[in-house]
Design brief:
30% helix; five-stranded mixed sheet; 2 domains; peroxidase; Glutaredoxin; 213 residues
Length: 213
């Protein structure tokens, strides 16, 4: 079983999906990506999750993020299930769902946790940067649906901190003040962050979010 850590290159794979054959790295191109697994088709929590992602597609698009789902069920099952998702969730599934019957991708990304369930994937989430590196991993049990508002919040933080010398504090949301990283000397802050800053402690300096007008 693979072990993936933050900063590793996301393993590449080729697989069948509801939108045709996908070579993962080629499909991502210059975009960020969210790869998330669900335990099985025709299950209630997963139905609500995929419906939610379809409704949030525009929010992912404006962040240059592609989303792709996966389960160990087959392509015919996926196609039939999409009809149920569209009907019950009042949306149209607008992203690919990978068919991983041979568990190749699931094992590549360590999505099957035998002590939880030896047959089905847990609710894994991988956020992958445009550099193909793994930026975040979250694992939920099969019984707990994901909060996609939280995933968008994390993506906002990841994309902000990738390009600016800041970190985001607890409960940060887009538009809130940020923490100046310790590597920036206090005397250098004005030239890097012209919006100003507040020094709470020498190691805790706050500045307005730098990528907002």
């Amino acid at each position: 079983m693979a072990t993936i850590r933050l900063g590793d290159e996301a393993p590449n794979f080729t697989a069948q999906s509801t939108e045709g054959t996908i070579n993962f790295h080629d499909w991502l191109g210059d975009s960020w990506g969210v790869l998330f697994s669900h335990p099985a088709d025709y299950t209630p929590v997963c139905t609500t999750e995929l419906g939610t992602v379809a409704k949030y597609k525009a929010d992912f698009d404006k962040r240059n993020v592609k989303v792709v789902a996966l389960s160990v069920d087959g392509l015919d099952s996926h196609i039939g299930w999409v009809k149920d998702i569209n009907e019950t969730q009042g949306t149209t599934v607008n992203f690919p769902i990978i068919a991983d019957e041979d568990r190749k991708v699931s094992e590549l990304y360590d999505m099957i946790h035998p002590n939880a369930d030896s047959n089905f994937t847990v609710r894994s989430v991988f956020i992958i940067g445009a550099d193909k590196k793994v930026k975040l991993m979250i694992t939920y049990p099969a019984s707990t649906g994901r909060n996609f508002d939280e995933l968008l919040r994390v993506i906002d933080s990841l994309q902000l901190t990738a390009y600016h010398k800041v970190a985001t504090p607890a409960n940060w949301n887009n538009g809130d003040d940020c923490v100046v990283v310790p590597a920036v000397a206090t005397e250098d802050i004005p030239s890097i962050f012209p919006k100003g800053f507040k020094e709470v402690k020498p190691y805790l300096r706050l500045t307005p979010q730098p990528n907002l007008d």
